[in-house]
């Protein structure tokens, strides 16, 4: 008869010096054993954290996780107390990633579901080719601003850019916002010039449906980062949408 | 048949994770420190490289010979060494020479001989108008193009490049870099894409005291190389990055351009962006693109350039390769990944990601944190 050992629900790991493959193997094992909450301290560049867990868990990360944090993640919740590197939430399927800091390039790349909250700014190509299908709809909220090519080739989902930290009348720095967009929507606060947008991008005011989606996301953002949702929602927002659903549909046809 | 992937890769998944890694750290107050931290930092990005190249540049390295050119030369044969030393004695006054100390490292196979020479270029007066620096550049080109089995790794004053085939942490161990001190270190872990992994092809690349470490691919290499040949720079190391070292020497030392302008030549704004700039700036940017079209660096890149007293991080204008920055007191850190910086300096004053094409500059002339310290001092 095997001895029945109660699995702890909460496990802490000091990850200093642990190679990423060994760390991810350990996480897989813990999750298989039934652990629900995992706290990782001294994280320093380990890649692919939480990428292939057998069921959703809650992971808190202290330090700087490596590239492809939460890649292909399916339902877990990651909270990072620090900055994220490149490719965060790459092809995220479901779950939540919350970054108490900034994130590097191509965060949310090809996400097909789940939610991403970045307190500060994001690097190049945030939300590139996010997509949606039926009830799967990725949503990303960026507190500050983004660098060039935000929402590039977006095919679905919602990208919110709050423009916090921009001074009165200061424009976003990003160029090529929404280049190649053919699905989904971007809600953005803070000034921008027409030339900063991709040529496939239309600009509109928000309607009630938009306001509802934006309001819910801003409330969630403020709950994560402890700030004033009403003040943010009083700021003017614009809606960026794809002018064409198949911008290159005829490129090779004639 | 034996499954070789099981032997070389214990995880058996055959995944190749490819990208070079860069790291640079500089104390802008000029204080020197050992190679320990820079080695730990670049080793933290081990998986970006594949063991086919690692290297370091160090500044403030030879305070005992600050006024002599320090030549680090790699030899593949005894004949190469004999021939080169004859050449050096003929064209320079060699004040001191020795083999660069190494220790055996299991992973470093068949290393070449690496020697260093401290020399002056007073004999340049025999060649009319050539300045000592120009004279040194010309002689380095003579060695690299004319003598078999000899390559000059570095040729600047009070600095040197240490490099070879291996992971950067192995190269550091091989050359005993923990025993050297400098105020500025850059490091590189290589993942060669188009050219072979060999000792001369490892980064940094150097001419005089300029060094460059690079992640990416310079697809304009051919045009850059041909342009530089007109000025006497010959590319012999079979890797695209080499052009950057010569280009920056030409633009800064010979053409007296400030580094901010050099950044606009290597990574110029797009034409439509230039059209939107104020008139005066527009004229300058157009002139640069016309005059120096052949030095535009096309393709994805992140580089860390360094010379005496200065370290510069720069990416291509649409940032297809990563660069992240950290500051702590008078220290400036540049890295492919933030985690590498945090490993050696967990509590940064500032950590940020620069925009593509915008240089990040650390300089002894303008130490960072100096004003901050003054303010703090005043408040106390």
From TrEMBL, chain A:
It comes from the Bacteria. Residues 39-190 form the Glutamate synthase alpha subunit C-terminal domain. GO terms for molecular function: oxidoreductase activity. InterPro entries: Glu_synth_asu_C, Glu_synth_asu_C_sf, Glu_synth_lsu_3. Coiled coil: none annotated. This is Glutamate synthase domain-containing protein 3.
UniProtKB/TrEMBL annotation, chain B:
The active site is at residue 20. InterPro entries: GATase_2_dom, Glu_synth_lsu_1, Ntn_hydrolases_N. It comes from the Bacteria. Coiled coil: none annotated. Residues 20-380 form the Glutamine amidotransferase type-2 domain. This is Glutamate synthase domain-containing protein 1. It comes from Dehalogenimonas formicexedens.
